[in-house]
UniProtKB/TrEMBL annotation, chains A, B:
Name the record gives this protein: HTH-type transcriptional repressor
Gene3D superfamilies, A to Z: 3.40.50.2300, lambda repressor-like DNA-binding domains
UniProt xrefs under SUPFAM superfamilies: lambda repressor-like DNA-binding domains, Periplasmic binding protein-like I
One protein family per Pfam: Peripla_BP_3
Source organism of this protein record: Dinoroseobacter shibae (strain DSM 16493 / NCIMB 14021 / DFL 12)
Molecular function terms from GO: DNA-binding transcription factor activity; transcription cis-regulatory region binding
Positions of the UniProt region annotated as Disordered: 1-24
Lineage summary: Bacteria, Pseudomonadati, Pseudomonadota, Alphaproteobacteria, Rhodobacterales
Classification via PANTHER family: LACI-RELATED TRANSCRIPTIONAL REPRESSOR, TRANSCRIPTIONAL REGULATOR
Amino acid sequence: MVDRTTNRRVARKPATPSPTLQDVAQAAGVSTATVSRCLNSPELVVEQTRERVLAVVQELGYAPNFGARALAAKRTNTIGAIIPTMENAIFARGLQAFQEELARHGLTLLVASSSYSPKLEEEQIRTLLARGADALLLIGFERSARAYELLQQRGVPYVIAWAYSAGSDHHAIGFDNRAAMRALARQVFGLGHRDVAIIAAPMDSNDRARERVLGIWDAAAEVGLDRDALTLVQTPYSIENGARVMAEILAGPRQPTAVMCGNDVLAVGAMGAARAAGLSVPGDLSITGFDDIEIAGIVTPGLTTVHVPHRQMGIEAARVLATLLSGGAPPVPLLLETQIISRASLGPVSGT
Amino acid sequence: MVDRTTNRRVARKPATPSPTLQDVAQAAGVSTATVSRCLNSPELVVEQTRERVLAVVQELGYAPNFGARALAAKRTNTIGAIIPTMENAIFARGLQAFQEELARHGLTLLVASSSYSPKLEEEQIRTLLARGADALLLIGFERSARAYELLQQRGVPYVIAWAYSAGSDHHAIGFDNRAAMRALARQVFGLGHRDVAIIAAPMDSNDRARERVLGIWDAAAEVGLDRDALTLVQTPYSIENGARVMAEILAGPRQPTAVMCGNDVLAVGAMGAARAAGLSVPGDLSITGFDDIEIAGIVTPGLTTVHVPHRQMGIEAARVLATLLSGGAPPVPLLLETQIISRASLGPVSGT
């Protein structure tokens, strides 16, 4: 469904001006009055006509954006952000910093949450454009070609955060999820661990989750381990899921000496389940996370994880959008450094 | 600045229809064409006229909402929510449930964060109305009379969550912050604690924070303690602030045997600082929270706190708005039950 090559090709297309009411009327072979009637009082239009017109509206990506007219300079000074989830603090800190920096530029933030659903994200892109958003913040590169086309057709500036791709033409600000997790995995294997399990988020339509697993597989290959030698379980990010999957792994045939989790939320859940099973962390089992959100430093033992510069990413993303809105051209893409935070949850493989 | 009596009086006023372009033109003594020119291409209007017109726009609370015309039935099916903060998970779970329930009614959620600033919240109410929000979710009762007037003038349905006031005319869904904290405080005093410190959020313009402190004072009075006998420190909700204030209290002249915190985030910070100071919790010092967010169950020892039904509150709030939008009349207000979650962080006062 998602093809990053396609996305990139789409992204290369110069922004075409927003389709007008006239464009829709022409394409649908009706009067502009009929088009607006379909949008404003569809009950007055015979179904057949209405359906044809709305099909064209979809096709051309026509999003009536009267709101944008409402403010001077045709600007609403409203920025939209679509994040995968509002639960657990994964995006909270970066988003807060993003909003604070936007405020310094006189911009107001409206946030939508896609629940990691590409379909829902596309609807929300449509909604935010129709509500007159001047620009958008999106998480990760992976979305339907149609979503990218919609952005291109409308010529609305957007910045992609939380991910980095050297080859990308998008305005992006993020970090190398694969390299960051590879560095952490090298430490895990370097401590002698070979029975390593991975608890990751569903990798389909989540490039960050996939890149992190690829990073672990890279490091495994470096020590001559086949990726299939590593237990891999995919589950949505939540403390409960981390705990449940950890319990399942411990009940399984192969006992890992280390469990690498796709983020801190899963890792904290896994740690709780390991303790509940009477295992000592890291004595019996090492556990690692990703993100370095606050809970990573609060749990006992502290969680060894990858620190993501969430605040910096939020601030830089706001600056990129402000630059784009003022007609400037920010660097494409922008790479931020991550670092490994060594706490107590990762130790050498036990001698036993 | 904020007067809840005023708010209530405002709230009693029947919703007046949104001011029209004509209303603005008449009040400003110009043509409607001039008004829309001021809004759409102000550069074409002499400054003096433009300023007079925009002043009237402000005064009447006229928010041109062309967006609302863009969808059938003059509805955008967009709901706005303004929460005090996106950081730490205080509102995350309730908001996620709110959005999931809205989706079942075909409604899309856009969220703004006011950083606990009434001024910023008012701007965001204005923004969300201008962007065509059909209805709003607001947190707590306390906001400027102007903010309530704006909502009344526009006749936009809204529901207030996270707070409850028996006397209120607002559509509200929440819990009794004062009674909930009073019940927890009774347990604290019941365990023999008399040297009790309170770490609360700034109580000005935060009715939830104030009600919780009042609940502790109620329970103190019941055991013959004067409220002034309890150390009270106000600081914004954050783990860092909880830790910093806890360290200050421990460095002070009076060592408390129990510290009651305004929420779990402050309590987790306080617990970390107590441990860092070499104190055992609850052996040397008992600590309590409020909210029962995930970290409350993750820290060691587990945090004794008040469980707030966040998911239920989010779901009910969405149903109230859906009912209001379909012309129905939901109960006003709706009270949810909280319960005390007893974990290990609260114990009897040490014999020493």
